[in-house]
UniProtKB/TrEMBL annotation, chains A, B:
Protein's UniProt name: L-fuconate dehydratase
Natural source organism: Streptomyces marokkonensis
Cofactor list: Mg(2+)
EC assignment: 4.2.1.68
InterPro entries registered for this protein in UniProt: Enolase-like_C_sf, Enolase-like_N, Enolase_C-like, L-fuconate_dehydratase, Mandel_Rmase/mucon_lact_enz_CS, Mandelate_racemase_C, Mandelate_racemase_N_dom, RHMD-like
Domain Mandelate racemase/muconate lactonizing enzyme C-terminal: 201-297
Presence of the UniProt keyword Metal-binding in the record: yes
Membrane-crossing residue ranges in chain numbering: none
Gene3D superfamilies in the cross-refs: Enolase-like C-terminal domain, Enolase-like, N-terminal domain
Length: 448, 448
């Protein structure tokens, strides 16, 4: 076992035909085909364990994303499986620090998401080898080891290693009790399923009512294409769920700064809880202006924020009320640890982005760690839930009474069924071959 | 001619073995292999004109960059050559706005540089069809048309179309006289050739002395690996050039914020003119802190700034004294027009990044436009010059008395010799085939 090496990095372009249902439609993304640039790390340990993970994309360009993951192969093949699983942070730093690949970012876009996929695959492998889910691997770790998993380059002015250790030590107080509560009650979720822009008002109302009946205390609507439509849908949704259920709204970067303030205030009558992605994810100062202009409506962003340096500034500039990590946008678990620590230090709640392909499966691990062993609270914290494509995963999410159930299977819950991988490989998988031959039909919804 | 279509988008992975000379070595990039993900737009016009351009990378990952350009093919093939050349801005917006590809950025990294390459190839084609160099095509354009070439999304809080038109109208005043002066005297340059980190002190001194003899009034040294080395090299360079030649220093993102302030101040005795890339290019607030901490040394950045939204904030936050555009990092000429307009509005001088492969060739067009028809001045403005790889270009830069000569050949000067493309194609070109067979040797310098 100690001599085991990583022997292969398989990369697979997997695409699901979600655009046919308008699942996932919003003001900027009218027709996404949810896709995964999927990676499998294989070893010669003989234990049958593999590390699985992926970068999430929405269709075109998934091949580019896969090529970026393949470009990391030489950094990974031949590494000691034991060493890399004992310290994913060193690999993370080596990948981010490759001086030639760094030019393609640095630490952003296609190349950084590729690093995130590989790093997350290492965490999947490490957790499987440890026989524990990733959230439990994290909560069981020593504060000093966890603090060493973070790259402080470019964030030391906001968070030092010493501060990280102190936060993590404090997080250990009472963690055993919180772990039991997590296992008993799960972690709060909110649902976006009612609110896709392509849905009719009737469907929005029907799904919003069902969400409340299912125990959700917050839903989310997509906005930003047409103000009159947004007002009408928001009024209908508010009438359907009543005054006590939070309704977040999400503009998916549709607006300029001034427009974001005006549009959000035009919806104020229906008490939106937060406005999400009001403008460019790069516009730190713009978000700060929007926040000042729309209070008491909160400002949320993060699913397209490309690294810890931008999150650092969003916090320093008091630009956001809600920080939305994404499991597959930044450089993997290690960078998300940095971001969770930054949020904890600045006292801003983290409400992860999820949905897509497998993002719910992954990100719950990070929030559950945050609750058990970092901030110690779920107050004003919820994980997004979207009822998409879970059937393709071996360890899919389960929602009970509006809460994510804590996963107990070893790993990062990032592994798809072999049958799904084979069917949806693009362009050679069975579904796509049949599709090209005209043998598939639009279906009404998956899992809905 | 009016019916001509774009018929092909050829993408070629071209790499030069620059790492063997330590040309281009700095604190973050010890061994770059300067490379180009090269694109050729072909038409059926029958006039023999093609649009050439490229994304610049430093070696590994150039294949990923090439794949990203190829992913844009379907947006371009079949377009009217006339229409796209008459309005590159519409294509630029269509490429940036592809909702699925947008997920891979948005507007950053590999995918955005790919868009920049395609957009720049359109400008090359447009200028060739117009029989003028790009700088002249720009200076001859109407303010309203130029203003329409800019995408104001996410920058309207800093620059409106109306403000852009006003700046461009003002730029027309006296432009005929400035054009004559430009053709007679060229545009000021500074040189980085003396200062690569891998060079010995003797080589630094020898090249610095030669730079002054050649008429340069500013040189640049790489710093950031070792403070004692930097102090020694800076002292030697200052002694070599005397007090009146500006010496810029460049840390290539090596530092955290506090470290940047300390290190720069430790070099203050030798009067560095600017500190370039002191920290992460994403750290707008960090640059503002550094600027306050190192004055009167100026702060410069931009070669890795990924789009106009970040430049906007660097200006809004008063984080930089010198703005460094790059011809091949952002979304092409159109986004660089936006950035030049922002800089003009905020009164910050633009000193472009150049070097690499062909960056000098391209970016001079943008500064020359800025001088003739936008800001109307070259005060405190210089274009970086590095004596690398120009021999591969059909319309290479020429430097006379420390000034870039204005190019007069039609196009964007972005076209390589067919023999260079063929020899340095990776991995199948003649050089790389010979190299793989052990038949190439390290050479002392190209063009030095």
């Amino acid at each position: 076992m100690t001599a085991a090496r990583i022997t292969e990095v398989d990369v697979i372009d997997i695409r699901f035909p979600t655009s046919r249902e308008l699942d996932g439609s919003d003001a900027m993304n009218p027709d996404p085909d949810y896709s995964a640039a999927y990676v499998i790390l294989r070893t010669d340990a003989g234990d049958g364990l593999e590390g699985h993970a992926f970068a999430f994309t929405i269709g075109r360009g998934n091949d580019v994303q896969a090529a970026a993951i393949a470009a990391l192969r030489d950094h990974v093949v031949g590494l000691s499986a034991e060493a890399v699983c004992a310290d994913p942070g060193s690999l993370s730093r080596a990948l981010v620090g490759d001086s030639q690949l760094r030019w393609l970012g640095p630490e952003k876009g296609v190349m950084h998401m590729a690093i995130g996929a590989v790093v997350n695959a290492v965490w999947d492998l490490a957790a499987k080898r440890a026989g524990r889910p990733v959230w439990k691997l994290l909560t069981d770790s020593e504060p000093e080891w966890l603090a060493d998993q973070v790259d402080y380059r470019y964030i030391e002015d906001a968070l030092t290693r010493e501060e990280a250790v102190a936060l993590l030590r404090k997080g250990k107080d009472g963690s055993a009790g919180r772990e039991l509560r997590l296992l008993a009650n799960g972690y709060p979720a909110y649902t976006t399923s009612p609110g896709w822009l392509g849905y009719s008002d009737d469907k929005v109302v029907r799904l919003a009512e069902r969400a409340v009946a299912d125990g959700f205390t917050q839903i989310k609507l997509k906005v930003g294409a047409d103000l009159a439509d947004d007002v009408r849908r928001m009024r209908a949704a508010r009438a359907a769920v009543g005054p006590d259920v939070r309704i977040a709204v999400d503009a998916n970067q549709r607006w300029n700064v001034a427009e974001a303030v005006e549009w959000t205030n035009a919806l104020a009558e229906y008490a939106p809880y937060w406005i999400e992605e009001p403008t460019s994810p790069d516009d730190i100062l713009g978000h700060a202006t929007v926040r000042r202009g729309v209070a008491p409506v909160k400002v949320a962003t993060g699913e397209h924020v490309h690294n810890r340096v931008v999150f650092k500034q969003l916090l320093q500039a008091e630009a956001i009320d809600v920080l939305q990590i994404d499991a597959a946008r930044v450089g993997g678990v290690n960078e998300n640890l940095a971001i969770l620590l930054l949020a904890a230090k600045y006292g801003v709640p983290v409400c992860p982005h999820a949905g897509g392909v497998g993002l719910c499966e992954l990100v719950r691990h990070l929030s559950m760690f945050d609750y058990v062993a970092l901030t110690g609270t779920t107050e004003d914290r919820l994980i997004e839930y979207v009822d998409h494509l879970h059937e393709h995963f071996k360890d899919p999410v389960a929602i009970v009474n509006g809460h994510y159930v804590a996963p107990t299977a070893p790993g990062f819950s990032s592994e798809m069924h072999a049958t799904s991988i084979e069917a949806y490989r693009h362009p050679g998988g069975a579904f796509w071959v049949a599709d090209a031959a005209g043998l598939t039909e639009p279906r009404e919804g998956t899992n809905r």
